């Protein structure tokens, strides 16, 4: 393993560690010395189809054959229109807005909710992570992330997840424009939110004319074993944000919204230079069609059930483990001590895992991973945690 030398030309907002990666193959990353690493990070839940995917290679090649990488949103292009149509056909939504990231999608959703409701305040929940721009950061429950950049957007309230009385107080009919929540919290520790809590929020938002936003940036598009995480809860939002796996590793975000919400918006109310460009939209369409296949999603659910049982057994044997939770191929292992040393130990044994908060190991492998590869990864985790 070769350590990366400091790169002073790159702004030091990341503490990059480990080897320098030069290639990828399936569910493995390959370092400059040829060492292969089994990847349970997948670019932080981005590379749903793994590395060197034929689906993505073919889509990129086809898009490049047209000669159109970018033409701006001043003009129509077929890939964006077709992608929007297929997202609408597969979801609750009537219209779609494309952008470049999850944070941008959440910022847009806040603007759309404000315009629709005529109100200004936002309610989010403990453990939330919605991005690092000024509104999305204000709705993120990470005080150490927020403090250096305050004042952020005013009127954003973070209330305890699961506290009904606090939610009822915070969601004010005369002030609240939107409630935002991740159906499965990612950065907050991989925590599936109970369906009855989502249903309560739906009822409160309906009663008080508030937009309900589901942030599925990390948990959407097959990660939980259904195309959208909200399907498993049986609760439908007014707006839903997507990003990470949408364009197979190319930067793309989206806001899905109902006609009720979209009807408040007019040309010029919001814009993006790059969102929904022909290249990224072509790739996203191929990714969407691949993931939204009944056999593909069944395989994710089956592998998720296997992984959940295997991790539960690991947790029962290891006193360091205090909880195991997740859905599909999105799992967290909560420890009684800091998780970072175990991330390092796993990497030194050829397995890449991430954290989700100080004490949680996060596992979000490519959705195309095999049970045999999952077994290999869990075996390394057992060695590390022992």
Q: What are the key terms here?
A:
386 residues, 17 strands, Aspartate Aminotransferase, domain 1, alpha/beta, Aspartate Aminotransferase, domain 2, 7-stranded mixed β-sheet
Explain what you see.
With 386 residues, the chain is of the alpha/beta class. It has two domains: 21-39 and 293-385, Aspartate Aminotransferase, domain 1; 55-291, Type I PLP-dependent aspartate aminotransferase-like (Major domain) (Aspartate Aminotransferase, domain 2, 3-Layer(aba) Sandwich), CATH 3.40.640.10. It is built from 14 helices and 17 strands. The chain has a seven-stranded mixed β-sheet with strand order 4-12-11-10-7-5-6, with helices on both faces. Strands 1-2-3-15 form a four-stranded mixed β-sheet. Strand 1 (21-25) and strand 2 (28-31) form a beta hairpin.
At the third CATH level, what is the topology name of the largest domain? Aspartate Aminotransferase, domain 2
Strand content: 15-25%
Order of the strands making up the biggest sheet: 4-12-11-10-7-5-6
Low-pLDDT residue intervals, each spanning 5 or more residues: none
How many β strands by DSSP?
A: 17
Assigned CATH architecture of the largest domain: 3-Layer(aba) Sandwich
Number of domain units:
2
- Radius of gyration, Cα only, in angstroms? 21 Å
Biggest pleated-sheet summary = 7 strands, mixed
Percent helix, as a range, is 25-40%
**Can you tell me the CATH superfamily of the largest domain?**
Type I PLP-dependent aspartate aminotransferase-like (Major domain)
Q: Mean of residue pLDDT?
A: 96
Count of helical regions:
14
Structural class, judged by helices and strands?
alpha/beta
Measured between the Cα atoms of the first and last residue, the distance is 23 Å
